[in-house]
């Protein structure tokens, strides 16, 4: 009974966390729903779990029909990924993009609000990089001719930056620039955001001697990093501003960033991956998005983002990769994000 009450309390506090976001028109925190596991609950149960905890945004990595079916009428905003291997097809012609749309998206458009379709995840600077822009353009034309407000974008990761520190010195790497430059001009012309996967955990884990844990976890009260006139008290803002600076160097200063993934593993790498640290990071991330303060460089930016991920995924690589879930596959929380 005590266990049940504790669980109920946990469920209620989680609920409150996302419910606070429900009052906002923008800037909510969503959760990525990855399916690289052989023990995950049914998509129907997962959608119920999102609703039970008032998580109002979901990002999925490809158009899984079962998930899309389960989302019908759920009122959960969806960011939908195009599989990386489908990008060249979408790039080949508007007809091909239309076929992809007819099979994967069109059956659901009356029942699911699809905010963004992201063409590829962490593709640049690898294979298919040069197909992203034409794929985005073809798909955007298809969406427009179907009178949908859905916007196309792509998901990049920190590796597209060459220099990343200090934030004002950040630039896209020579291998990424030829692709990303045209993409961000296109995003600017469409008033669409760039999606960026940003994990303060990784630089911290790579260099815990020099990067302070409280800086990586939004726990410092004073700014630690000075960059010209700007002061940084958390690593995520520094990483975000690196991206804003890099875009400015390409002549683009009006593209917002949505944090398409962030989070902290709760196991897999000794004492820097514990449920307590994961809870602290994710809880503070939610507060940071909710405080409407933007970043030092873009104080007016409306931050928006997704926690990675809903579940632990047992078919990922061993180590931290299997331990990012807010929930275990049995749908119990791995930790209390308000603890
Ligand atoms: C992990 O353990 C090492 C060695 O005892 C210690 O120096 C470090 O501060 C610990 N880190 C955390 C986050 O507890």
TrEMBL record:
Residues 1-19 form the signal peptide. GO terms for biological process: carbohydrate metabolic process. It comes from the Eukaryota. One of its GO terms (molecular function) is hydrolase activity, hydrolyzing O-glycosyl compounds. Coiled coil: none annotated. It holds the Pfam family Glyco_hydro_17. InterPro entries: GH, Glyco_hydro_17, Glyco_hydro_17_plant. Keywords: Glycosidase, Hydrolase, Signal. Belongs to the glycosyl hydrolase 17 family. This is Glucan endo-1,3-beta-D-glucosidase. The lineage of its organism: Eukaryota, Viridiplantae, Streptophyta, Embryophyta, Tracheophyta.
């Amino acid at each position: 009974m005590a266990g049940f009450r504790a669980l109920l309390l946990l469920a209620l506090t989680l609920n409150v966390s996302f419910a606070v976001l429900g009052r906002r028109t923008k800037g909510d925190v969503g959760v990525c729903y990855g399916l690289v596991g052989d023990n995950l609950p049914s998509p129907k149960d997962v959608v119920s779990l999102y609703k039970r905890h008032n998580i109002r945004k979901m990002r999925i990595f490809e158009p899984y029909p079962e998930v899309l079916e389960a989302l019908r009428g759920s009122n959960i905003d969806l960011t939908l990924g195009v599989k990386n291997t489908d990008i060249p097809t979408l790039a080949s012609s508007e007809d091909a993009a239309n076929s992809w749309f007819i099979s994967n998206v069109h059956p659901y458009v009356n029942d699911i609000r699809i905010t963004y379709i992201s063409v590829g995840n962490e593709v640049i600077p690898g294979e298919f990089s040069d197909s992203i822009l034409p794929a985005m353009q073809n798909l955007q034309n298809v969406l427009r001719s179907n009178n949908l407000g859905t916007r196309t974008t792509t998901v990049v990761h920190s590796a597209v930056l060459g220099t990343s520190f200090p934030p004002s010195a950040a630039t896209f790497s020579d291998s990424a620039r030829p692709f990303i430059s045209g993409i961000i001009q296109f995003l600017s012309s469409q008033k669409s955001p760039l999606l960026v996967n940003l994990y303060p955990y990784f630089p911290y884990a790579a260099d815990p001697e020099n990067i302070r844990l409280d800086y990586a976890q939004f726990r410092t009260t004073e700014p630690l990093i000075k960059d010209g006139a700007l002061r940084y008290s958390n690593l995520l803002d520094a990483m975000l501003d690196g991206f804003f600076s890099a875009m400015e160097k390409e002549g683009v200063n009006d593209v917002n960033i949505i944090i398409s993934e962030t989070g902290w593993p709760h196991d897999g790498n000794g004492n820097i991956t514990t449920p307590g640290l994961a809870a602290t990071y994710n809880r503070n991330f939610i507060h940071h998005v909710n405080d409407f303060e933007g970043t030092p460089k873009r104080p007016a930016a409306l931050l928006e983002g997704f926690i990675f991920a809903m579940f632990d995924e047992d078919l990922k690589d061993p180590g931290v990769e299997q331990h990012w879930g807010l929930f275990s596959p049995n749908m119990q929380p791995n930790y209390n994000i308000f603890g």
